[in-house]
Amino acid sequence: MNGERFVELSIARFTCACPLKRATSNQQRSHTYGFTLVEILIAIFIFAVVLTTIYTSYTGTFRVIDETESQAEIYRMASIAMERMLEDLESIYVSKIEEKPESGEETPHSFQFMGEDREIKGRCADTLRFISRVHINLSGQEQDTGITEIGYYVEEGDEGDDFALYRSDKPMFDKTFSLEEQTGGLVLCKRLVSVNFTYYEEDGEVLESWDSSSDALKDKIPKMVSISLEFVNSLDPEAPLRFITSVALPIEHG
After folding, report:
1. Residues near 111 by Cβ (< 8 Å), separated by ≥ 6?
2. Res. 13: pLDDT tops 50
3. Taking a C-beta distance cutoff of 8 angstroms, is the pair 241, 230 a contact?
4. 186-200 and 252-253 as β-strands: parallel, antiparallel, unpaired?
5. N or C: which terminus of the chain carries fewer CB neighbours within 10 A?
6. Residue range 179-189: average pLDDT?
7. Which of 3-12, 179-188, 202-211 has the highest mean pLDDT?
8. C-alpha span between 86 and 249 (Å, rounded)
9. Residue 107: left (phi > 0), alpha (psi -120 to 50), or beta?
10. How far apart are CA 157 and CA 181, in angstroms?
11. CA gap 52, 1 in Å, rounded
């Protein structure tokens, strides 16, 4: 009897102890798979760092693309402007010498070539005017306009401190050759910092301006003209993009 009672008591104790063990095991399992506040904050911090890195790389890539496209556009404008000016100057026209009926003396027409050394806001903004046989015909009709008054002049741009270079093209139907101040030209290129023309005499002397109606340069045309265009550099505003070319003038007499 005592042995049976002992077995019953042992079974009862084991039965009572089992639920407590299961509860304790569940609590430990729940604690094992949970996250503390510190762990959550660390995860958020890591995610923020990764997201910031990705965003910086993304925006940096598009900034580089925009800057590359901007510089490519400047190179394109510079190429077009230089090519246009070279073609105009290579077709320069000098009026023929005429004789006065009374005295028999030869007198040239009043104008041949005019280059002025100007500044805007302390930066070079030179102008150039001359007679050429190159005319840009926008009418779509084939016609021989003969000689043309070509002018280059600079005005302040609409985007701040930059300049815009204009080209005027006026067919001349008479032979007075009196050029007027440039107006109504078409924009040749924008985003300029400076425009400078340099003139070379036959002996190599360098001049910053030229006036073929003056006493010193009477009826003379430069032997060579150097063109310098400086554009805004978005990557380094203190170092503008500079393009230089020169052209020897093949003078054509009418």
Report:
1. 95, 131, 177, 178, 179, 212, 213
2. yes
3. yes
4. unpaired
5. N
6. 71
7. 202-211
8. 9
9. beta
10. 19
11. 79
245-254 pLDDT, tens digit per residue, is 999 987 654 4
Residue bearing the bigger pLDDT, 94 or 18:
94
Alpha carbon distance 39, 127 (integer Å): 71
CA angle at residue 166 from 163 to 171, to 5 degrees? 170
Listed by start position, the domains of the chain span: 1-34, 73-253
Asked if residues 208 and 198 have their Cβ atoms less than 8 Å apart, the reply is yes
**Confidence class for position 206, pLDDT limits 50, 70, 90:** very high
Q: What is the DSSP string of 45-112?
A: HHHHHHHHHHHHHHHHHHHHHHHHHHHHHHHHHHHHHHHHHHHHHHTBEEPPPEE-TTT--EE--S-S
**Facing residues of 2 across strands?**
none
The string of pLDDT tens digits covering residues 127-152 is 999 988 877 655 555 555 567 889 99
